[in-house]
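Structural prep section.
Before we set up the soaks we want a predicted structure of the protein with magnesium ion in place, mainly to decide which crystallisation condition to try first. Input record follows.
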Amino acid sequence: MQNSYYNYFNNRHPLLQALPIGYCFNEFEIEKIIGKGGFGIVYKAWDHRKKCAVAIKEYLPSAVVIRRNDLKLNLRCSSLQKRFKIGLHSFMREAHIMSYFNHPCLPRFLRFWQQNSTAYIATPFYRGITLKLLQLKHPKIITQNWLCRILFSLFDALNTLHQAGYLHCDISLDNILIQNNQLPILLDLGSARKTTEHLSDDEEITVRSGFTPCEQYTANEEGQQGPWTDIYALGAVLHTLIVGKPPPVSIVRSIEDHYQPLTKRCPTGYSLSFLHVIDCMLAIKVSDRPPSISKLAAMIKPAIIQACQIPTSHLPFLYQIS
Ligand SMILES: Nc1ncnc2c1ncn2[C@@H]1O[C@H](COP(=O)(O)OP(=O)(O)OP(=O)(O)O)[C@@H](O)[C@H]1O
Ligand SMILES: [Mg+2]
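Run finished without errors. Recording the C-alpha cells verbatim:
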C-alpha cells in the first residue's frame, strides 16, 4: 500500500516525467531542466546547427498525463482528454502570441512543433536570474534606482503587449528574468490573452495569491480587465521586492483591507513619491489605479529620469504621452 502511494506521487512529479538529458529533437540536444510547473517543463538545450543555447518548453500537465517508456504521453484516464486538449490549445496560443511580437524584453519565438504526443516551443536561452532568485541570493542589488532601470525596459515591453490588445495576466517574480546585461525579459506568455477574448467555461484562469487583482478572479465581462490588471500584478512584484512579501490577497482585501500603504511603512532608501505610485498600482478599485502604462510612466517619470540619467527630451515616446 505504502509503495503504491509513493509511486502515485512520484510519477506525478514533473521532474520524473522529464525527457532524458542528451535527448535530441533534430539539432536541439537537451542539456538540463531549468524550470518545471504543473503545466510543463522547460529545458536548456544546445542548438548544434547554430551553436547556441535554446530554451525548450514542453507541454506536460502532470496531473493529466504520464510519460511512457517510449517518451510519448498517456492520459492518466480517458476522461482527461478534454482537459489535455484545452491546455494544448492554450500552449499553442502562447506560441502564437510569442511569434507575433519582436521586442528585446519579450521572449523571441524560434519554433513550435508537435512530437511525443505533445507540443514544444523553442526560444533563445536567456542567461540571467529570475527576480525570485535574485531577491533570495542578491537582495542588496535591489534599490529604487535599480528598480527604475528595470521598469524603464519593462514598461516598454508591457506597453507593446497592451497596445496590441493583449494582457500578460501572470506577471510575477519568477516570470521576470534579469539578463546578465541587466535587461529584463518578461517570460511566460502562457496566460496572456486578448483583452476582448472571453474565456470558455472550461479554461483555467491563472491566479497567483497576492499578485492577481480581483477582476482577474471573476471577470468575463468585457471591460473589467485591462492594462490596469497587469499594473496591479507589477505593483505586487515591486511590493515584494521592497518589503519581502506580496500584498494581502486581493479578494480578501476586497472584503476587509489590511493593506499597509508603503507610504506609511516608509522602507528606507525609497522616496515617498515612488512608494505612492506603487500604492496606486495596488489599489483594489480599478478606477483608483493608473489605467495604462503611459499614465504609469508619467507618474514615475522623475524617478526614472534620476535612475537612468536620461534628459527628459531623450525619453522614449511612451513618456511623452500622459
Ligand atoms: N528562454 C529562457 N531562458 C532562460 N530561462 C528560461 C527561459 N524560459 C524559461 N526559463 C526558466 O524556466 C522557468 C519557467 O519558465 P516559464 O515561466 O516560461 O514556464 P512555466 O512557469 O512552467 O509555465 P506555465 O506557467 O505556462 O506553466 C522560468 O522561471 C525561468 O527560470
Ligand atoms: Mg512561469
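Observations: The domain at 128-319 is CATH 1.10.510.10 (Transferase(Phosphotransferase); domain 1).
Flagged for discussion at group meeting.
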